[in-house]
Write a structure and sequence with these properties.
Elements lengths: L2 H17 L4 H9 L3 H6 L7 H10 L2 H22 L2 H30 L23 H5 L4 H6 L7 H5 L3 H7 L2 H21 L2 H29 L4 H7 L4 H9 L8 H12 L4 H6 L7 H30 L7 H25 L4 H8 L2
Length: 365
């Protein structure tokens, strides 16, 4: 089948949905609502109506979060059902990212109970435990008595190899950060492989989107973890995602990240991403003095804002281009994710009784 027949129906369907999404009046009315209950009620009559129903039934914002996750998963599955096999398989890999984030949440509960010796009984109810992509026993993860039991809970899944590389003692000494990075790297490796299985314009679009995405993530990790968290060269190298221009250029130049990692990547960034070179130049090595930490954080936030704007522009460009590619699907998922993030942020702000101005500031409005 050709690209037109592969994508004509689903892309027309998604474009229609995109046309009615991102209603600024909805967000504005939620921010202006005098209470959390009234903010949630603004979702009545929208595609988020189920969230309002869940809150009325439970009065529990975390149950609303769980319902939003369930809706997100259902959205991926619905779109996959309309796609040809190669594109559907690619979207399945995107859904694996949702699964990995859910796995992290479950492992954090296990860690909290077994390493930190905190009670997790009330929190376990907020883990999504149904099938996402792979059959995973989340109860077995949360309730594992030993690390061996935890690792055994992943037997037969693609994540087993990641868990087998760690021990209870290594996690107790270093925390969950190395394990979570290893899970992320596994996903990016799967993503790169899945992009390689796409063909023609689909592959070109996916490569363009995710190579830039990885580059900017690597820039953020190098700046944040080298200067703010003081990772040494070995640990910093293990954090970098081995994909995209930045990582490949560091490898090509055999550039060591030992002395001043940010200085090492400045030349690379100046050529590829000149828009953020000024922010990179302002980031300074810190001994945790409050002023420098705050200044660095402000520069990193600006880089993150650039990341968000770069993504928006790329997806908007795709929507005005060839309508018969996977690009419309990827744009749709991006817009859904952005909108859901705003909904979460507004509800969280209302829960903590933030002012309208503070919520708008956090949303960049």
């Amino acid at each position: 089948m050709g690209r037109v027949s592969d994508y004509s129906f689903i892309n027309a369907k998604l474009r229609a949905r995109i046309g009615i999404m991102h209603d600024p009046q909805l967000v504005d009315s939620m921010i202006k609502a005098p209470s959390l209950t009234e903010a949630v009620a603004k979702l009545d009559g929208t595609r988020y109506q189920q969230l309002s129903e869940v809150y009325r039934a439970t009065g529990d914002l975390q149950q609303v979060e769980l319902a939003l996750l369930e809706s997100e998963i259902a959205n991926y599955r619905e779109v996959m059902g309309y796609l040809p096999q190669s594109s559907s398989s690619f979207v399945s890999v995107l859904l694996e990212k949702v699964e990995i984030d859910n796995i992290k949440n479950a492992i954090r509960l296990w860690y909290s109970a077994n390493v930190m010796h905190h009670s997790i009984s009330y929190r376990s109810a907020y883990i999504y435990k149904s099938l996402i992509v792979h059959p995973i026993n989340y109860d077995a993860i949360i309730n594992a008595g030993t690390y061996s039991d935890l690792a055994a809970a992943f037997h037969g899944t693609p994540y087993s190899g990641v868990l087998s590389a760690f021990t209870f003692d290594s996690l107790a000494a270093s925390g969950l950060f190395p394990l979570e990075i290893a899970l992320d790297h596994k996903w990016f490796s799967d993503l790169e492989s899945a992009i390689g299985k796409l063909s023609g314009k689909d592959r070109q679009i996916a490569e363009a989107i995710y190579s830039v995405d990885v580059d900017l993530k690597n820039i953020l990790m190098i700046t944040r973890y080298s200067y703010s968290y003081h990772l040494d060269a070995e640990h910093l190298a293990s954090v970098i995602i081995p994909m995209g221009y930045i990582a490949k250029e560091i490898e090509r130049r055999k550039a060591a990240l030992s002395d001043d990692p940010v200085a090492v990547i400045r030349e690379i960034i100046a050529f590829r991403y000149p828009q953020i070179i000024e922010e990179i130049a302002h980031i300074r090595r810190t001994s945790d003095d409050l002023t420098t930490v705050e200044e660095n954080n402000r520069e990193i936030v600006r880089i993150e804002e650039y990341l968000g704007e770069r993504r928006k522009k790329e997806y908007n460009r795709i929507l005005t281009g060839d309508p018969f590619t996977i690009g419309v699907v990827l744009s749709y998922f991006f817009i859904c994710s952005s909108e859901e993030s705003v909904i979460r942020a507004v509800l969280s702000g209302k829960y903590y009784r933030w002012s309208e101005d503070k919520i708008r500031e956090r949303l960049g409005l």
